[in-house]
Amino acid sequence: MYGFNEKYQSYLSSFESYLAGYSNGLKTYPEILGESMRYSLLSGGKRVRPVLMLAVAEVLELDPNEALPFAVALEMIHTYSLIHDDLPAMDNDDFRRGKPSNHKAFGEANAILAGDALLNEAFSLCLGECLKGEKYALAAKFLSDCAGKNGMIAGQPADLYFSTQSGEVTEDELLFIHENKTGKLLLAPVIIPSILSENRYYLRLEQFGKELGRLFQITDDILDVTGEFESMGKTLGKDATANKLTYVKLYGLEGAKIRADECAQRSIAILESMDADTQFLKDLVAFVRDRKH
């Protein structure tokens, strides 16, 4: 009998098992580099991105072993971005997932290098997959584009830039930040299984991934105001202090909640248009909308 929590845990267990096996091979000299990489990579968390990739793979009837290497590469990219995001020069946060941030545990220089190493390891893994054929190379390129100067990295300087501006900002500027800084790494786990499945449901999954990424960021903005440290595991209230451009800043808390509900409704409508079993993905939309961490 289907249960969302049980299904989520099943995907999570598959991913964690594969990740643990891969991480055992991360031998480095000096050892502190490997320690700092594993400290953040194996720190747990919701693992929404790899769970999402495995769930979409199942919807598309794709062998999960085809998706797992890309799921690990994606999580390494995500982890490197969090390590760098927490640095004093960026968001300056002392905690991540309830533990001291990487730079607090290992020092700023080692944290920067751990992030660099995780990013390079992710693409080393992807290049190994490229040797299997064209669709694997296309999947790796898509992940690279989502992570790079036209994706996640583009969103970060825009986020920093607009936090220093005192004039009026537009919704387009807000969307640019969030669709890149957060959204692209939530689009990747939706599209990569489609690429590996000969582009099955590509356009509808692209729409779904964009809506889900926007929903995730809106709820993140809301939780920065309403969340608790014990469940979030990071410093809260920093968006307002740092003058960050957020949905709450632009629309108010209630306005942000309305837009989150609209994103969730559009996401579910897209899934319902697909001739496939998308129940877990629909429940995942509700999970993201109602999350407390």
Provide structural commentary:
The protein is an all-alpha fold and 293 residues long. The protein contains 15 helices and 2 strands. It has helices at residues 4-23, 31-41, 48-59, 64-85, 102-106, 108-130, 134-147, 152-162, 171-181, 184-196, 202-226, 229-232, 238-241, 247-272, 279-290; strands spanning 95-96, 99-100. It has a two-stranded antiparallel ribbon with strand order 1-2. α2 (31-41) crosses α6 (108-130). The model has no long low-confidence stretch (mean pLDDT 93).
Protein topology:
Elements: H1 4-23, H2 31-41, H3 48-59, H4 64-85, E1 95-96, E2 99-100, H5 102-106, H6 108-130, H7 134-147, H8 152-162, H9 171-181, H10 184-196, H11 202-226, H12 229-232, H13 238-241, H14 247-272, H15 279-290
* SSE order, one letter for each helix or strand: HHHHEEHHHHHHHHHHH
- Judged by helices, strands and strand pairing, the structural class is mainly alpha
Shape: globular
Q: How would a textbook summarize the main sheet?
A: 2 strands, antiparallel
Give helix % range: over 70%
Task: Please tally the helical runs, counting DSSP H or I stretches of 4 or more residues.
Answer: 15
CATH superfamily: Farnesyl Diphosphate Synthase
Radius of gyration: 18 Å
Low-confidence stretches: none
Could you please say which CATH topology applies here?
A: Farnesyl Diphosphate Synthase
Strand order of the main beta sheet, please? 1-2
**Share in β-strands:** under 5%
Please tally the β strands and state the result: 2
User: So what's the CATH class?
Assistant: Mainly Alpha
Q: Which architecture per CATH?
A: Orthogonal Bundle
C-alpha termini separation: 27 Å
